[in-house]
Specification:
Layout: H1 2-15, E1 23-25, H2 36-42, E2 48-52, E3 56-58, E4 70-81, E5 91-93, E6 98-105, E7 110-115, E8 120-121, E9 129-131, E10 135-140, E11 146-152, E12 155-156, E13 168-173, E14 175-181, E15 184-185, E16 197-202, E17 205-210, E18 213-214, E19 231-234, E20 241-243, E21 246-247, E22 255-258, E23 265-267, E24 270-271, E25 288-291, E26 297-303, E27 311-314, E28 320-323
Length: about 325
């Protein structure tokens, strides 16, 4: 049996196939044996998995990028603390990476950043938590359009002063075929005049934003508004679906659709109320603001108790409107 195993390993090396190199983080230190940094340098992709036997990883320098096709699973019990890293991102992902079950805090830049295809951040029942980061989760592409992205069941935000997520809670940009589902995004603060946004979809097609709670805590009733808009869609030419979200208590408009976005669908959302749609928890601006964007569909939503209009259209054409 020993010789058979050696032969299989030797054959895999000769054929050029990657050999799985799963790794367990056994040290919470910044560097050295058993650390997360060491695991990231050792894994080869091909479905490798990084798990943890420690509760906290304390970093003093930025981590290397995660190789393609690696799964990192904190099982909901692991904190990665970047407070002592200056200007660093937390995790940098590429094609086919999966990150679940982590708590990330203290990163001046972005908590989780992805540049590539088929990236997964959070799974149903096993999402991530992000607090005190420059931005929360950003998936994008610096080359061709990023394809097949998934951001599911994450919590982005904190109520403790000084621990908020800044600028954008979740952002998908330059992407096609993405889902943002089941997340709770709250208390994102402003660092500039046009940010403080819960969820942003920019320059993307075929993005579904569904069943998120934006601006309230997970109970669906307690106000914890983002300082800017709840959801913002910018210059996304087709296929954006906003469905069954709760978007309330945000400092500006509940939903902003702007800059030549086309065919955005808003269906079955509660905008300015609690999850049940019965108690007002209004946004600070309009419920829905549509600017320079055409053919928007607004159907079967509960839009109430916002400071501005229920639905406001500016330089927009076409569309289908049904209240209630």
């Amino acid at each position: 049996m020993r010789w058979n195993k050696l032969f299989l390993l030797f054959g895999a090396v000769l054929s050029g196939r990657a050999v799985a190199a799963d790794c367990t983080v056994t040290s919470g230190a910044n560097n050295g044996a058993g650390t997360l940094r060491k695991c990231l340098n050792n894994v080869v992709g091909a479905g490798d998995e990084i798990t943890f036997s420690v509760a906290t990883v304390t970093l003093t320098a930025a981590l290397p990028a995660v190789p393609a096709d690696v799964r990192i699973d904190g099982a909901g019990t692991v904190t990665i603390d970047g407070t002592a890293t200056a200007g660093a991102m937390g995790l940098v992902l590429t094609d086919d990476d999966v990150v679940v079950g982590l708590h990330l805090e203290g990163f001046d830049s972005i908590g989780i950043y992805g540049d590539g295809d088929r990236i997964v951040v959070g799974e149903q029942g096993n999402g991530n938590e992000l607090v005190n980061t420059g931005q929360g989760i950003v998936l994008t592409s610096t080359g061709a359009v990023a394809d097949d992205l998934s951001i599911v069941d994450n919590v982005v935000g904190a109520l403790t002063p000084g621990s908020e997520v800044h600028s954008y809670g979740i952002q998908v940009a330059f992407a096609d075929d993405a889902e943002i589902r089941g997340n709770n995004v709250f208390a994102v603060d402003k660092t500039g005049a046009s940010d403080g946004v819960g969820i942003a979809v920019t320059y993307s097609t075929n993005v579904t934003v569904e069943a998120n709670i934006i601006g309230l805590l997970a109970d669906g009733a307690t106000a914890a508004g983002n300082e800017g808009a709840g959801i913002r869609v910018i210059e996304s030419p087709s296929g954006t679906l906003l469905r069954n979200n709760v978007v309330s208590a945000n400092g500006e408009d509940g939903v902003q659709i702007t800059a030549l976005s086309v065919g955005v669908q808003l269906i079955d959302n509660r905008i300015g109320t609690d999850t049940a749609g019965m108690t007002g928890v209004g946004n600070g601006g309009d419920g829905v603001r549509i600017s320079a964007s055409d053919d928007t569909i607004v159907e079967r939503n509960v839009i109430a108790d916002n400071s501005g209009s229920g639905v406001k259209m500016l330089n927009a054409q076409g569309g289908d409107w049904q209240s209630g």
